[in-house]
Specification:
The complex is a heterodimer of chains A (512) and B (228). Chain A is mainly α and 512 residues long. Chain A is built from 24 helices and no strands. Chain B is 29% helix and 31% strand. The chains are: A mainly alpha (512), B alpha/beta (228). Chains A and B meet through helix 20 and helix 21 of A and strand 7 and helix 2 of B.
Chain lengths: 512, 228
Amino acid sequence: MSRPLVALAAAVFVLAGLAPLAAMVPRVESADLAAIFAPRNLELLGRTLLYGASVALIATAAGLPFGFLVSRTDMPFAALLRPLGIAPLLIPPMILAMVWTVLADIRGAPAAYAVSSVSTFPLVALFSARAFERIDARREEAARIAGGWRAALRSDLPLVLPSVACGACFAFVFTVNDFSVADYVSWLGQPKFSVYAAEIFANWRIESRPGLAVATALPLLAVTLAALVPALVLRRRGAMASLSGDFRQPEPFELGPWRWPAFLFCLTLVSIGALIPAARLVWEAGGAARGFEFARVGQAFTLAIERGREDLANSIVYSLCAATACAALALVLGHALERARGGRWLESLVVLPIGAPAVLLSVGVIVLWNHDWSARFYDEGGVVVLLLAGRFAAFAILIVSAATAALDPRLEEAAQLAGAGPFRTLTRIVAPSLRSALLGGWIGVFVLSLRELDATMLTPAANRTAMFRIFNQVHFGRDDFVAAMALLILFLVVLPGALWSLFARRRLELLP
Amino acid sequence: MNAVELHDVSVRAGERGILDSIDLAVPEREHLLLVGPSGCGKTTLLRTIAGLVRPTSGRLELFGRVASEGARVVLPPEQRGVGMLFQGGALWPHLNARKQLEFVLGCARTPREQWSARVAELLEWVELAGYQERLPATLSGGEAQRLALARAIAASPRLLLLDEPLGPLDEELRHSLLAKLHELHQRLGLTVIHVTHAPNEAREYATRTVRMRAGRIVAEGAEAKERK
């Protein structure tokens, strides 16, 4: 490890992800803290916790069998359904809400529960799939000899459950911190569904009380960290339990007559989460009830590109820059976290920016950078890149640190003995060995940045992005322009993963 | 002169002692066999000599220079003149055979114009001529281990550390690699410390055997004398 390089990367991470949060702390007054315990806040917090826990449970009920079926069985088209299953996670939840509230005619809490469950089940599915396929064949065979498939399943489950629980924890975190779905379903009319994140937003935007906004955010931050820290421990336990040096891939389970029902189950999930929403948006872009025509779809796209050109370009550039910055940070910090003594304890600090409500981070960035001396930076895209990088760097860092844990340390020791310095070892030996994880982290941050709405809503420079344009426009009515813009976002979030699936020979590491 | 001298060297991990007051001297050009059951500290001793593990106490000298004093590392691994053949090879999976060796030559500041000849020479020595562009994944177990050996000696070390180098190989390959190691030992005048958990392994070529148990040296014997 190069200490100057690690120090530089840590400084950038602190500036982007931790300083905005730290800047908010002095603004809290005792009266603000007392307001945390106001009955309305407590009621909202309870409702949000129930919301998060229920969504995590539903996501597990759908994601665990999905992950098992696509990774360990002879189900037809498993190889196709596996990458398709990620799509609902990539699609901005607000776009899913836009589609399903109309299609299923649901409002309020049921709509929010349904949309968030559909949006987060791939998290559990991805973690489950990875855990199932990392079970050593010999372990499973030993159990099968002892007691057949039932015994094999009994021996497999303890190895898989930590990963499943880890996915569920992430689903919980995504849900309790999301503001856009609840905001959208409430905007549609009665019954409304308010969540805690919306209250933080209201305290800043409507009440103009930053101290109160920070104080209100504290319980949500505590809850999120309480879910993320076990998730990090479980993720490590899941990986440790199932990987060994001379690993052998297990045989797929034969489903027999259940092959096609299993396929239908997975296809239904993918359809609800991605295929139907995409089809519905195409239909809306083509004129919808006014009379669908393919020619209109083309016109809608032309209009969207014409009117939303600047927003789309901004979204792409900001996301590209944030992803590239995060990949560089991840290589240095992710590797250092795993290799440095005590590095694992610092993981809790690294996840703080994703653990904090997005609105809080956004307000912190405003407080930190909205000054005369930094006006140029604040008004331009730089601040958006900083905000997005600060928010999402943890994902890339955790992905790289997990990949580093699986990287034989002797590869680095051999380089060290050969005389390679820390920088050379990092760039010539570690980086090429971790390229799947680095690219996975890059794609993850790119997609998350592109679909981000909560964090970008308050920062003026970030208001010139495609997601914000959709958010704004949808409040003035749904038309083919909104549908075409949403489809363009869908295309952009799916594109990097699709290109990788088509042209790369190895699987992308997308999980922390 | 002794190639390696350990004076009262201990290594601890928290409360657990891994090496306990090791005293050992290895004369130059010796082929020392370090044997003992799994988990007795052989590999840790090797890694301590290489500088990959920091001792808790004691003094380590390499070719008359202090390499570590107490917990203070005086010479970092890359300055110890050590080559190491790792268990399983630890070849860099993204580099072909030529690049594996060029990486080491670059680190050793060997002039670039000499790389090509040196790579060819090294691959010739380990009978891998013509394998220059092959990636580790395309090599058999024996070939990979021979490439790892070429990499270990690429920078012309004076001390070669072998960590269970024959572990994954079959009987025939073990003999052929041992013969190759012996040949290089003789030709290059190397000092070799060879760790194994199988006492009969390499006894034919070793000049001395040191037996370890539970982090301590429990017996020493001169192989050549024993054979006589």
